[in-house]
Amino acid sequence: MSQESSADVVQKALSTGAYGYVLKTDAGIELLEALDAVLRGEQFVDRRFSGHDFVGASHPRVSQKFTNGNFPAPRQNTEMSHHHEVRFYSDDDCFLDSLTQFIGAALNAGNAVIVVATESHRDSLLLRLQAHGLDMGAAIEQGRYISLNAAETVSTIMVNDLPDQAKFRKVTRDLIAEAVKAVKVEPGRVAPCGECAPLL
Q1: pLDDT tens-digit map of 109-130
Q2: How far is Cα 196 from Cα 200, in angstroms, rounded to an integer?
Q3: What DSSP element (H or E) covers 163?
Q4: What whole-number distance in Å separates Cα of residue 165 and Cα of residue 145?
Q5: How far apart are CA 173 and CA 115, in angstroms?
């Protein structure tokens, strides 16, 4: 799901592995249909792009069938793997369970995590991660767990009530550079997660 309505952006998304593309403004109408299509193993592109002939990635991506409602594992690039997920949740417990699992897996693998969340969620996450046996004091001290207030972080990238691309890049670049220094495994990875979209 994206706010970008350029056909070039859609083509780039599909050629790098996206299974579907829905404009945020059309999500209320098309998101469920898109999810159904993707779960059937079909490609879905927002109706605003009808008439365009988009080509997917060269691997047999669209023909893959989903089994038991699970998505295929993300493709791995030999140099670096990028994976972006968007989660929808019905309540705070579901959200926090999902984040706890994601963060715990990243920290257990020796990677760094950047969390951008509300104050109450940050406090709850810390308690949940400690309850799962993670030494959060050590992770924080090592710089492998960076926890930021969502409202304060979002405010650093805003100009005239809109996100500024240059500020966003600088803030994220600096945060990731700081986190990656703390990673002692090869290849070092940083797993950012959080809840900025509702604030925006």
Answers
A1: 999 999 999 999 999 999 999 9
A2: 6
A3: strand 162-163
A4: 25
A5: 15
Can you say how many angstroms the Cα of residue 24 is from the centroid of all Cα atoms in its chain?
16
Q: Whole-model pTM? A: 0.62
Task: Pick the closest to residue 85 from 105, 63, 58 (CA basis).
Answer: 105
Segments in the chain forming alpha helices (H): 7-15, 27-39, 92-108, 119-131, 136-142, 150-155, 165-181
pLDDT more than 70, % of the chain: 86
Give the distance, in angstroms, between the CA of residue 68 and the centroid of all CA atoms in the same chain.
23
- State how far Cα 162 lies from the chain centre: 20
Q: Which amino acid is at 179?
A: A
How many Cβ atoms from other residues are within 10 Å of residue 144's Cβ?
A: 23
Nearest-angstrom CA–CA distance, 200 and 106: 26
- β-bridge pairing 162-163 and 158-159: antiparallel
Contacts of 121 (CB under 8 A, 6+ apart): 92, 95, 96, 99, 195
For residue 42, give Cα distances in angstroms to 6, 17, 158. Answer: 22, 13, 38
Rounded to the nearest 5°, which phi and psi values hold at 167?
A: -65, -40
Q: How far is residue 111's CA from residue 144's CA, in Å, rounded to a whole number? A: 7
Token pair 């969390």 is found at 115
